[in-house]
Specification:
This protein has 4 domains: 220 residues; 137 residues, Chondroitinase Ac, Chain A, domain 3; 95 residues, Sandwich (Immunoglobulin-like), CATH 2.60.40.730; 87 residues, Immunoglobulin-like (Sandwich). It is elongated. With 629 residues, it is mostly beta strands. Helix content is 1%, strand content 48%. A hairpin with a 2-residue loop joins strand 46 and strand 47.
Length: 629
Amino acid sequence: MKGNNAIVSTSFNLFPIRTINTTAANITNINDNVINNIQNFSDSTVQLSFAGILYAGGNATGITNIYNNKIYDLTCTNANTGATAALINGIHIGSATGNVFVYNNAISLATQTGTEASVRGIFHAVANAFTVNHSFLYNSIYIAGSMTGAANYSYGTGGAGGFPMCVQSSTNWADTSANNNLYIGLSSGNIGAFNTINTGLDFATWKTNSLGDKSSLADIVANVPVANLWSNTANATMTLLPAQSVAWYAYGQGTPVNYPSIFLDINGVGRSTTIVGGPTTIGCAEQSLPSSAPPTITNTINATGTYNYSFGGKLIAAITINPPTSGFNFDISLRHFGGRIPPNPSGQYGAGYDSIYVSSGTPTGLNYDINLYSYPNQVYNIVTPANTRIAKSSNQGAAWDVQLANGSYTAGPPAFATATGLTSFSIFALTSTDAPMPVELSSFTSSVNRNTVDLNWSTVSEINNAGFDIERKAIDNSNWSKVGNVSGSGTVNHTVNYKFSEKIEGKGKYNYRLKQIDNNGNFEYFTLSSLVEVGVPNKFALSQNYPNPFNPTTKIDFELPFDSKVTISIFDMTGREVMTLLNGDLKPSGYYTTNINAASLSSGAYFYRVIAEGGNANFVQTKKMMLVK
């Protein structure tokens, strides 16, 4: 049943689409229908009940899909109250058997006024036991108006006394029966009703009783204005507004569903169906990354103790302030980037990260522990959840410090990773000890003395760090060359300092970078932020050879302040020239090193002489060296 457009009115019970007493053992689809502007104006004294779609039937082995429907403006003028008040349902699931999947529906029931009618977005009225799967997933529903009866829906807001989710019978209700829903009501204490139709529960109690909605969120309309959430509730266009911060209530909060396989949204946009494919947007429409920052969650810290941070009724983090922290009455704020990949990821990591910072006041002696909570939609490519740990970055994700010695994991639901004894805030993500996020480099600096370049760097922590290759390139060259290697420290959770020195031949400006290599061969680069410049010497100079004595090789350094013709010769003790290294070779100004291999010479004392002619000046210098075999 597809593609219908129903705009009708009636004076009695009414169901624009009604499927009842069906016994089909195969697949029934009710999809892509638009049902709107339906009014019941009966003055009957008996209870009226009508719905945009009524489904009550099926076969125990059959499958019914109710999806991609738009339903809006269902109203009733009947003035009955109490037990005979009208029942208005967007989608009504009655005494249905078989598999019933209700998903990707957009329902906007916001025009009912002046009666005690009960308005429900999706009403699951199966009071008897249903023996197979009934699931309500990815539905966007808005309910408003002045009705005072019960409201049941999986994504929307409710009128006075309304319940965002109402289940008449708990028999055979499973932990997969409801998920990926956003519940927004007028009262936080009336988020759902379970095993009844008239007793309100807050979100935490609803989840405890129903076991479901692991990836769902709940809040009140005062915190999530509908006008900032959906494109146009007047015609059930329930696409999110990415420029609004409340879009983060839905973006990336969903857990992929593979039974039924919901791989498209109401607009035909693809949805992930696997955890490693990434989290989904809850509600009927997928959403690209919001362009605004997430809402800010703030606690005022007025004493030591634990402070919880929740987003839409979902616990995100818990921060425990420890002694010797002082300077109280400061604020700690958190922004939860749910579903967004952390900056500069590698290895295994969760989908989502948190920015935590002191937003007001100045704590002193800060010391705290933190729990970051992990939900199924966040697992992403972490293979073994038990190995989850917290990663902390003080430079916006350029590098990550994995909390190992001070870290742990507690299974859920909800699961959480813990880090203890921290002293600063930053951004936080979840990673795995199996393939953790990279080494955190806390500093990388350089200094130059004549033509000697010294590189110094420090790590805050390391995991399986085999070492660092040092690479250099001239600024006029696109190719990097390896010039050295420094061994790493393996796995440590404390600061390690490293140093590398080299002499540059010639002159010029250079870039340096470190190639950090894990024991498994994974690597990442850290580039020095500034250029290294080796300038022109201010005078001619010749160094003593090194090593000295030597066998059979040694080196000599010389410096040229001008472009020069250079001759380097070696003499024995009688003054006989035994070797010529350079013979009038033209060398640009700069620093040079020449290697001497005296394997063909006998042990004894020798002299080396450098003659340099350039810049209208001549330079001649002789030094003694000792070959010992």
